[in-house]
């Protein structure tokens, strides 16, 4: 994987504070990149739920302080309601030598700096649930972080899919488009499946066809770099069934309802 800066990630011990689904996905992504498991700490109150990681020689513990003391990179993957209490416990142990990475939704870099020294290097990351299969779209924003530490953060999250740097002011928008967007896409696929059943397929076959078709459509955009309309033009012929179906969907408000849904989601976040 190309990086703009030559780094040796295996020199840094990583502590993942919060070994829930996302925290475990990050650890598993690192292991797939052949990261030294003995340099990964994962914490969880119910440490027995980390048995699968422990079996791979990952350091598992319920002691957040121990993990922070042992690590150079700290990844906070806690529920939003828990972060302030945990930061209070760890504040005196987090130094400017640490790189702090937060994957906590609805908790800004500014909120982190209120609990930590103002010189702490912080990167905020917003992955989505496709991280579990290595297909996340992760948006990154940072404060005080060096180019090297941003490169290290990209290394970690590139193990879970793709990364892109954005301004933190767009993090709410990234949550809607990238994280809520998973649900939007799945609802679209569900509707395709229902339509497929109406025109004669059984549910299993319709699910396979719809899912692979959407995957293929995404790859056309990612690999060719074209605008969606360019790819749409390739499958729409005069008086054909594709354009007839598309026009009917637009008459029923397909695009406008999706756009309105996206805007409603961000308005809900920003209330």
TrEMBL record:
Q: What is this protein called?
A: Pyrroline-5-carboxylate reductase
- In Gene Ontology terms, what is one molecular function of this protein? pyrroline-5-carboxylate reductase activity
What are the entry keywords? Amino-acid biosynthesis, Cytoplasm, NADP, Oxidoreductase, Proline biosynthesis
Q: Which domain of life is it from?
A: Bacteria
Task: Give a yes or no for keyword Secreted in this entry.
Answer: no
Kindly list the places in or outside the cell where this protein is found, as annotated in its UniProt entry: Cytoplasm
Instruction: Give the source species.
Output: Kordia aestuariivivens
Substrates-to-products reaction catalysed: L-proline + NADP(+) = (S)-1-pyrroline-5-carboxylate + NADPH + 2 H(+); L-proline + NAD(+) = (S)-1-pyrroline-5-carboxylate + NADH + 2 H(+)
InterPro entries for the chain: 6-PGluconate_DH-like_C_sf, NAD(P)-bd_dom_sf, P5C_Rdtase_cat_N, P5CR_dimer, Pyrroline-COOH_reductase
* Residue ranges of every copy of the Pyrroline-5-carboxylate reductase dimerisation domain listed in the record: 168-268
């Amino acid at each position: 994987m190309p990086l703009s800066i030559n780094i040796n990630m295996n020199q840094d011990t990583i502590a993942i504070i919060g070994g829930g689904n996302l925290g475990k996905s990050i650890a598993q992504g690192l292991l797939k990149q052949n990261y030294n498991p003995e340099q990964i700490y994962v914490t969880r109150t119910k440490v027995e739920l980390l048995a699968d990681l422990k079996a791979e020689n990952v350091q598992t513990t319920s002691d957040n302080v121990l993990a922070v003391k042992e690590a150079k990179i700290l990844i906070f993957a806690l529920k939003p309601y828990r972060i302030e209490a945990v930061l209070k416990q760890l504040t005196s142990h987090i130094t400017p030598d640490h790189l702090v990475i937060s994957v906590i939704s609805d908790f800004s870099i500014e909120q982190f700096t209120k609990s930590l020294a103002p010189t702490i290097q912080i990167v905020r990351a917003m992955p989505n649930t496709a991280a579990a299969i290595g297909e996340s779209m992760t948006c990154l924003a940072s404060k005080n972080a060096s180019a090297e530490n941003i490169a290290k953060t990209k290394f970690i999250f590139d193990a879970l899919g793709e990364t892109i740097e954005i301004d933190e002011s767009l993090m709410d928008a990234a949550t809607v488009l990238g994280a809520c967007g998973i649900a939007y896409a799945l609802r679209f696929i569900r509707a395709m499946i229902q339509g497929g059943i109406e025109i004669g397929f059984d549910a299993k076959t319709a699910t396979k066809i719809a899912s692979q078709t959407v995957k293929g459509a995404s790859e056309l955009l990612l690999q060719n770099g074209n605008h969606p309309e360019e790819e749409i033009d390739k499958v729409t012929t005069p008086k054909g069934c594709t354009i007839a179906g598309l026009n009917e969907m637009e008459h029923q408000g397909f695009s406008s309802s999706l756009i309105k849904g996206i805007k409603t989601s961000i308005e809900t976040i920003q209330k």
